[in-house]
Automatic annotation (TrEMBL):
InterPro entries: Glyco_trans_2-like (IPR001173), Nucleotide-diphossugar_trans (IPR029044). This is Glycosyl transferase. Transmembrane segments: none annotated. The lineage of its organism: Bacteria, Pseudomonadati, Thermodesulfobacteriota, Desulfuromonadia, Geobacterales. CDD domains: GT_2_like_c. It comes from Geomonas silvestris. PANTHER family: GALACTOFURANOSYLTRANSFERASE GLFT2, RHAMNOSYLTRANSFERASE WBBL. Keywords: Glycosyltransferase, Transferase. The keyword Isomerase does not apply. One of its GO terms (molecular function) is glycosyltransferase activity. The keyword Metal-binding does not apply.
Length: 306
């Protein structure tokens, strides 16, 4: 498909959340500069990086909007800063894009094309391939089982042979590449910052779906992902937030939550970690449960009630 013309294009703001990831963010910005779609504006939100990212990005890309959050607000909080900035400046669409990605020149064009063609489309996602092995799929749509507190990617790790090349409705859209219409944000609000990390975009998608919007997977929009670059070294954080937020996600979205199954699976995992001597990770699991039971949310180091 050809690019949307300058005179007919909807205004899109591309929000890149940076946290100690200068080199990845630079590569992502450079790939966004090759996008065929216009008008599109890249905005970087720096989540209180400690590696000098903010200043280096300002020097590397003079004139590029770089917003400083002042503290690490997590995925939802940081992206919400960018979304507000975009909407205040008249954005018709906001494209949330992980900074550890690169994009095909037509990726945004295809997302907007489908969004404009499908009136009820509210949130749309790309076909995401592995950056290290572009023949492998990372995301070709998603599934959600809220009663079990589980979400997952369709096609994860499968060779891309065109088997997922139809635009389809999807259970949710991963925040790695997520295009949202302005009206959706105005109707359903921002992402819930209490999650801090993980499940926030899943719940956001479900909230949009409950308001009658369609969630669409757009395979002609291609993105390459480096796969958890920012959290690979944070195994404990991953265990804590996945444990805690899964329970919140179930309690808020599972109509017939299967608590016994959830508790049984988590107990088995907890005992497995103890048996392997992974005491730090087991402690992260128990902390996740404790904070859920006592109603604490947000950042683990600075939890808040509610």
């Amino acid at each position: 498909m050809g690019a949307v013309g300058l005179s007919e294009g909807k205004t899109v703001y591309i929000v890149l959340l940076n946290w100690n990831g200068f080199q990845d963010t630079v590569e992502c910005i450079e790939s966004c500069r090759a996008l065929s779609y216009r008008p599109a504006t890249v905005v970087v939100v720096d989540n209180a990086s400690r590696d000098g990212s903010e200043e280096k990005l300002r020097q590397r890309f003079p004139g590029l909007p770089v917003l400083q959050t002042g503290s690490n607000l997590g995925y939802a909080g940081g992206n919400n800063v960018g979304i507000r900035y975009a909407l205040d400046r008249g954005a018709d669409y906001v494209w949330l894009l992980n900074n550890d990605t690169t994009v095909h020149p037509e990726a945004l064009t295809e997302l907007v094309r489908v969004a404009e063609a499908e009136r009820q489309a509210g949130i749309l996602g790309s076909k995401i391939l592995s950056y290290l092995d572009p023949t492998l799929i990372w995301f070709a749509g998603g599934w959600v089982e809220a009663d079990r507190g589980e979400t997952g990617h369709i096609g994860l790790g499968v060779p891309d042979r065109g088997q997922f090349d139809q635009v389809t409705d999807t259970g949710y859209v991963t925040g790695c590449s997520l295009l949202v219409k302005r009206e959706v944000v105005e109707q359903v609000g921002m992402m819930d910052e209490g999650y801090f990390l993980y499940f926030e975009e899943s719940e956001w998608c479900l909230r949009a779906k409950r308001q009658g919007y369609r969630l669409l997977y757009v395979p002609a929009s291609i993105v390459w992902h480096k796969e958890s670059v920012s959290t690979r070294k944070l195994a404990g954080a991953w265990v804590y937030y996945m444990t805690r937020n899964r329970l919140y996600f179930m309690s808020r979205n599972g109509a017939k939550a299967r608590w016994l199954s959830r508790f049984g699976s988590d107990l088995w995992e907890f005992l497995r970690l103890l048996a392997k001597g992974e005491f730090r990770l087991a402690n992260c699991m128990s902390s996740g449960y404790w904070h859920w039971l006592t109603g604490y949310r947000g950042r683990r180091e600075q939890p808040v009630k509610g």
